[in-house]
């Protein structure tokens, strides 16, 4: 367990990631054994939970698949109930480099939410076509909402302090892009601050990313709808207490 005065929880949402999650947990533990790791098994039908448990993680098993948003809200609730002061999300597929965890956490020294940005002049991660255009437009719109320049608002590699965790427990949508766009816009509307730090992405160890032209066009349309709904929800939000 990490020190009581500065407890860090690393949340790893995982759905059928039995081939990758063990290596991800072990790599995180080798980087800093003081960090606690909670794998949220999101209704997997393979051995994700058992593999994660054998690798040394705390495992929270959901009875059925809720999606990343539902898994993360489960993790944030666990973090709040157990007194963690900083929380960071790391994907189970190995694309997030554990060596960047400390750097993303350091962003919390100047903001409530710290995003590990993939398009900030570090690494060679690229996205082309409509998907890239959507990311640029979304980043510009959310930057205006956040009051700071952000280049990667759909990154799932992000950290939160206690204020942000409290906001996420209150509101963290499970629908499409809710875990990235909607949750970020809601946090800004609640008065939380956001920053970003550059990180390098790694290729998936297993599986294939979906970047077909049709998939990219669908991503563009759904992103615009998700962001529009997120901004329209503003009147129903209450500010997080300082």
UniProtKB/TrEMBL annotation:
<keyword id="KW-0808">Transferase</keyword>
<dbReference type="InterPro" id="IPR001173">
    <property type="entry name" value="Glyco_trans_2-like"/>
</dbReference>
<dbReference type="GO" id="GO:0016740">
    <property type="term" value="F:transferase activity"/>
</dbReference>
<dbReference type="InterPro" id="IPR029044">
    <property type="entry name" value="Nucleotide-diphossugar_trans"/>
</dbReference>
<dbReference type="Pfam" id="PF00535">
    <property type="entry name" value="Glycos_transf_2"/>
</dbReference>
<protein>
    <submittedName>
        <fullName>Glycosyltransferase family 2 protein</fullName>
    </submittedName>
</protein>
<comment type="similarity">
    <text>Belongs to the glycosyltransferase 2 family.</text>
</comment>
<feature type="domain" description="Glycosyltransferase 2-like">
    <location>
        <begin position="10"/>
        <end position="165"/>
    </location>
</feature>
<dbReference type="InterPro" id="IPR050256">
    <property type="entry name" value="Glycosyltransferase_2"/>
</dbReference>
């Amino acid at each position: 367990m990490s020190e009581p005065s500065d407890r860090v929880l690393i949340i790893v949402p995982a759905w059928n990631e039995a081939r990758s999650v063990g290596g991800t947990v072990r790599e995180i533990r080798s980087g800093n054994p003081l960090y606690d790791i909670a794998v949220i098994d999101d209704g997997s039908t393979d051995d994700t939970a058992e593999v994660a448990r054998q690798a040394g993680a705390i495992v929270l098993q959901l009875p059925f698949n809720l999606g990343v948003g539902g898994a993360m809200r489960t993790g944030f609730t666990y973090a709040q109930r157990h007194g963690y002061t900083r929380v960071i999300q790391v994907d189970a597929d190995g694309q997030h480099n554990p060596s960047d965890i400390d750097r993303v956490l350091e962003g919390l020294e100047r903001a409530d939410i710290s995003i590990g940005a993939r398009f900030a002049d570090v690494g060679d991660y690229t996205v082309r076509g409509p998907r890239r255009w959507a990311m640029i437009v979304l980043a510009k719109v959310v930057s205006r909402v956040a009051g700071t320049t952000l280049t990667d608002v759909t990154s799932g590699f992000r950290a939160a302090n206690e204020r942000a965790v409290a906001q996420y427990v209150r509101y963290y949508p499970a629908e499409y892009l809710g875990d990235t766009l909607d949750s970020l816009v809601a946090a800004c509307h609640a008065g939380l601050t956001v920053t970003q730090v550059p990180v390098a992405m790694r290729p998936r160890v297993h599986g294939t990313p979906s970047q077909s032209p049709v998939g990219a066009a669908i991503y563009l349309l759904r992103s615009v709808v998700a962001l529009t709904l997120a901004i329209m929800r503003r009147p129903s939000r209450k500010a997080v207490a300082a």
